[in-house]
Every structure is written in structure tokens, then in C-alpha cells.
């Protein structure tokens, strides 16, 4: 670390309100992780109560290497409770990858003001993250590419692994540059659901993106094997809230392959609903008047999945690449509840769930000496709060709090021995 005085109160140079999320055009010269502007967070719904919250907009990249601006929150622990380490090492950092909220700008975790369909989901990890701050660790929370900063042409590329990894990792660089000397080299990656999948991809890309310092990665109920789920859903003659994910998957596929034509992937009925994804939360997309009201078998053009057209072939190719079976060279911990109905531990053949993902990761990373620490929680163990909206969120989100103590101890051990 530098001998200079650590920066813990950087200049506030970000505009007020949602103008903050409008990147300057062109973007300032620089490299991924360079802060564009920052200010103290004035959104109580998004803030973590146990620390000092900063809203940041920084340079990042899409999967083709084009410069983009990505938003997020960086939180330092309470300095009265946790002064900077005397040895000059700086605060350890946990970079958090959030779960599915949709692709509309207003549902981005830093931008959500507590009055959206995504608000319960965005608030659900706050207990875990406040616990990290109370251990004396800093926390960084990316919004992902084009979530909060998106445009009609630039959609958040949902579950696109390299894009998510850029967001999760570049905010680490932004934190180190914005709070020079106050944020240390040691960092961990933790995520839930979409963010669990993003966390695994980020751990894979970390060596070339950030360099040294990553101590481990933890994924709670990580999204996995989406191709099989989408293809199976396309044969379902019933309606259901799960079909709200179809436009999100398509947005992710377009991020990886812009030549895909939504009009060649979707039926006319589904295509008429496609613009809603830009303006509704995932929860609102699940409503009967939206994607939740269209049968899976009525969503895809032609005889998909049996005989996909060329655009659907490319769509499938992108979905297949979203499974987070990737090489990782640091300790890996995965938590999965057996009775989670959103991300499944196991599914009937040929569908695959988290159990199979763990086997895949163990096989892929055996050469690195890595074996996943798999916390598979038996049915009826995770306690779901019976008050709304926590009750509605179910086991999938309740697993975050259930695992919080053990997960925090696991990260603590990694930081201690870093």
C-alpha cells in the first residue's frame, strides 16, 4: 500500500438525482474501473445502515471490449467502529453480485427507491451485507452493465457471464481508485441467484481482470443450465410466472450476439410483449397481463425447440454458454436449499440443477486442486418468514439469511489467511 494518507472522503462530483446515471458522451478517457463520478448515496432504500455509502459511476466494458459506464454502490465500514488497519493493508472488500430483478433501469439496486416490484428482492441481502460491514470489511455492489444506465438500444445482458464478471470486478478496481489506500488488495466475491452465477464467472475472469487478491468465491443458489430450462419451458402448455424470464434470457443472448432477431425467435404474440421488459421489473413481467399470461408453447416461433431456425440456434448457443461451469483457481463455496423452487438442487433427467453444476465444477477444476465446498441444505430446514413480502420471496431468498453466519465465517477465514 502507498505511504500517502488514505483517501476515505473523496470529492463528490456526481450530479443529483437520476441524472447521475446518464454517462457523459463521449466517456472520459481511461481504463476499466476508473471512476467517472461519485457522491454520497442519498437513497435510503438502497443504503446499508452499517457503513458509509457512496454512489459511483465508473468505466467498464461490454463483451466486445467497448467502453461502457456502470453504476453501483461502494460502502466503507463505520470508521468509529472499525478504524483503518494500522498496518496500512486497507479494508478487505466483498464484491456482491445481486439476483434477478429485471432489465429496466429503475430496478437497479442502487436506483430502486423501495417502491418497485424489485424492491423486496433488492432489500433481501441487506442483512448479510450489513454483517460484512460489521466485520470491518468494505462492500461493493455493482448494478451490472446497462442496469440503471441502459437505453432503448443498450439492454442489460442478463446472465451473460463475461459482462456480469466485468461489473463485479471493475467495481473492485473503482473502489481501490476512489478510496486509495483505504481499500486493500484482499477481496472476496459473493452472489445470489443470477449473482451466484455472476460470481462464478467473475472468479473465472478475475486473474486477468484484477490480478492478485481474490481469496475465494461464494455462490448462493446460483442460476445454472438455462438452456435446458428454456427448451423445456417452450413445450409447456400452461401459463406461469416463470415465463417472465424469457425476455430476460433474450436480452442476455442479444448482448452476446446482436445479430439475433427477436422477431425470428419469438411468436408475434410474444414479440408484442417484448418491449415491456425495458420498463417492468421481473415481478411485474410475471403478471397475467404480461409474460406470465402467455403459455410457454406460445412463446417461440416455428417448431422450436425441436427444429430451431438459425436465429433460435444462436439464441440456444448463447444460453448454453451461460452455465457457470468455468475454471476457478480459488476456494469455491456453493449453498443450495433442496426445496428451493426458483433455482433447483435437482431436476428430472435431462434437466440439470445445482447438484450437477457442483459435479461439473469439481471435474473442471480438479486440475487446479479445487473442490467445491457444497452446503446442500435439506428440505424444510430454511425458515421462511411468514410476513409479507418475505413470505412471498420463499426459500430462494430466505437461504441468504439462513446461510449468513456460516458464509461470513467462511469469508473471515479466507481473509485471515490471505
Question: What is this structure, in a nutshell?
Answer:
It comes from Kitasatospora herbaricolor. This protein is 32% helix and 16% strand. With 418 residues, the chain is α/β, with parallel strands linked by helices.
Structure, explained:
The chain has 12 helices and 9 strands. With 418 residues, the chain is α/β, with parallel strands linked by helices. The chain folds into 2 domains: 300 residues, 3-Layer(aba) Sandwich (Rossmann fold), CATH 3.40.50; 96 residues. The longest helix is centred in the last third of the chain and has 27 residues. The mean pLDDT is 96. InterPro entries: AB_hydrolase_fold, Lipase_secreted.
Number of self-contained structural domains: 2
CATH class of the largest domain: Alpha Beta
Spans with pLDDT under 50 lasting ≥5 residues?
none
Percentage beta strand = 15-25%
Number of strands: 9
CATH architectural group of the largest domain:
3-Layer(aba) Sandwich
Give the CATH topology of the largest domain: Rossmann fold
Helix segment tally: 12
Region (Disordered): 288-312
Protein name: Lipase family protein
InterPro entries: AB_hydrolase_fold (IPR029058), Lipase_secreted (IPR005152)
Organism: Kitasatospora herbaricolor
Amino acid at each position: 500500500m502507498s505511504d500517502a494518507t488514505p483517501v476515505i472522503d473523496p470529492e463528490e462530483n456526481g450530479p443529483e438525482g437520476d441524472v447521475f446515471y446518464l454517462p457523459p458522451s463521449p466517456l472520459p478517457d481511461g481504463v476499466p474501473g476508473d471512476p467517472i463520478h461519485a457522491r454520497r448515496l442519498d437513497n435510503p432504500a438502497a443504503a446499508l445502515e452499517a457503513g458509509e455509502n457512496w454512489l459511483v459511476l465508473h468505466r467498464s466494458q461490454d463483451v466486445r471490449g467497448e467502453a461502457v459506464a456502470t453504476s453501483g454502490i461502494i460502502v466503507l465500514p463505520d470508521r468509529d467502529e472499525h478504524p483503518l488497519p494500522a498496518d496500512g493493508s486497507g479494508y478487505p472488500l466483498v464484491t456482491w453480485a445481486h439476483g434477478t430483478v429485471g432489465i429496466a433501469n429503475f430496478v437497479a439496486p442502487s436506483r430502486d427507491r423501495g417502491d418497485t416490484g424489485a424492491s423486496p428482492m433488492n432489500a433481501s441481502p441487506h442483512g448479510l451485507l450489513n454483517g460484512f460491514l460489521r466485520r470491518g470489511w468494505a462492500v461493493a455492489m455493482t448494478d451490472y452493465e446497462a442496469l440503471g444506465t441502459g437505453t432503448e438500444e443498450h439492454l442489460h445482458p442478463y446472465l451473460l457471464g463475461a459482462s456480469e464478471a466485468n461489473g463485479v470486478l471493475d467495481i473492485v478496481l473503482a473502489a481501490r481508485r476512489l478510496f486509495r489506500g483505504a481499500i486493500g488488495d484482499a477481496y472476496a466475491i459473493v452472489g445470489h441467484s443470477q449473482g451466484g452465477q455472476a460470481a462464478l464467472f467473475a472468479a473465472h475472469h478475475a486473474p486477468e481482470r484484477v490480478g492478485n487478491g481474490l481469496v475465494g468465491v461464494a455462490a448462493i443458489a446460483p442460476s445454472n443450465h438455462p438452456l435446458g430450462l428454456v427448451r423445456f419451458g417452450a413445450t409447456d402448455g400452461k401459463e406461469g410466472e416463470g415465463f417472465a424470464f424469457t425476455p430476460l434470457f433474450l436480452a442476455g443472448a442479444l448482448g452476446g450476439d446482436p445479430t439475433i432477431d427477436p422477431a425470428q425467435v419469438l411468436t408475434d404474440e410474444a414479440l408484442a410483449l417484448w418491449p415491456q421488459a425495458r420498463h417492468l421489473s421481473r415481478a411485474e413481467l410475471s403478471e397475467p397481463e404480461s409474460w406470465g399470461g402467455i403459455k410457454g408453447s406460445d412463446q417461440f416461433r416455428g417448431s422450436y425447440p425441436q427444429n430451431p431456425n438459425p436465429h433460435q440456434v444462436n439464441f440456444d448457443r448463447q444460453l448454453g454458454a451461460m452455465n457457470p461451469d468455468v475454471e476457478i483457481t480459488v476456494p469455491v463455496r456453493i449453498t443450495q436449499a433442496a426445496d428451493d423452487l426458483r433455482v433447483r438442487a435437482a431436476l428430472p433427467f435431462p434437466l440439470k440443477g445445482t447438484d450437477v453444476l457442483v459435479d461439473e465444477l469439481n471435474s473442471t477444476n480438479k486440475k487446479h486442486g479445487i473442490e467445491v465446498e457444497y452446503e446442500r441444505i435439506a428440505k424444510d430446514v430454511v425458515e421462511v418468514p411468514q410476513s409479507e413480502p418475505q413470505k412471498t420471496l420463499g426459500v430462494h431468498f430466505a437461504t441468504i439469511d439462513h446461510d449468513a453466519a456460516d458464509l461470513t465465517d467462511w469469508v473471515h477465514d479466507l481473509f485471515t489467511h490471505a
